[in-house]
Write a structure and sequence with these properties.
Blueprint (H helix, E strand, L loop, with lengths): L2 H23 L9 E2 L10 H11 L6 E3 L3 H6 L7 E9 L6 E7 L2 H25 L4 H5 L2 E5 L2 E6 L3 H11 L3
Parallel strand pairs: 1-5
Antiparallel strand pairs: 2-3, 3-4, 4-6, 5-6
Helix pairs in contact: 1-4, 2-6
Length: 172
């Protein structure tokens, strides 16, 4: 296993442990600017298509790959009873770049998922602070969007592009 791959694996393990720690003891407060954007009440959003649109139209510095459902469930500290469906793309670990879209089973579950997304960002900040400090800039301005039963987290450089794609997807 080469050094870069080993570092990536170690960062992923560290981030997973931190995410689980934050989910167990967090107070729910966050400095991230989030909120309910355009509402999707009554509208069905194709989260696979939305994730694909973001991945295809936003420039990422690292290679991001779609991961199996069990990985984000663990990394985000989520419970199956809250998640109807999710689509998550993660980087190799060399960057904090990520696209995660969740369809919750209810609006209350979506609020829980949003909280876990905030914890994910905080754990990423801690993990990258000494490993790749240049990643802190994008971790300072993640896109966290909740609309109805849908929650989206995107960590990238082009926040405005992501916001425009989200706005289009959630139009009434």
């Amino acid at each position: 296993m080469n050094k870069r791959m080993l570092c990536g694996v170690l960062v992923l393990i560290l981030v997973t442990v931190m995410a689980l720690t934050f989910s167990a003891c967090g107070n729910g407060e966050s400095k991230d600017k989030v909120g309910d954007g355009p509402q999707a009440k009554g509208k069905k959003v194709d989260i696979e298509k939305l994730a694909s649109d973001i991945v295809a139209n936003v420039t990422f510095r690292d290679q991001i790959e779609k991961v199996e459902v069990r990985i984000p469930m663990t990394v985000y500290g989520l419970e199956e009873k809250d998640v109807e469906k999710c689509v998550v793309y993660m980087s190799t670990g060399a960057t904090a770049e990520e696209v995660a879209i969740f369809e919750a089973k209810s609006e209350n579950a979506a609020k829980k998922i949003e909280k876990q997304c905030k914890f994910r960002v905080e754990s990423q900040r801690s993990g990258y602070e000494n490993y790749q400090p240049e990643e802190l800039k994008k971790l300072a301005t993640p896109v966290i969007h909740r609309s109805g039963k849908y929650v989206l987290l995107c960590i990238c450089d082009d926040v405005e592009k992501v916001k425009s794609i989200i706005e289009e997807a959630f139009k009434q």
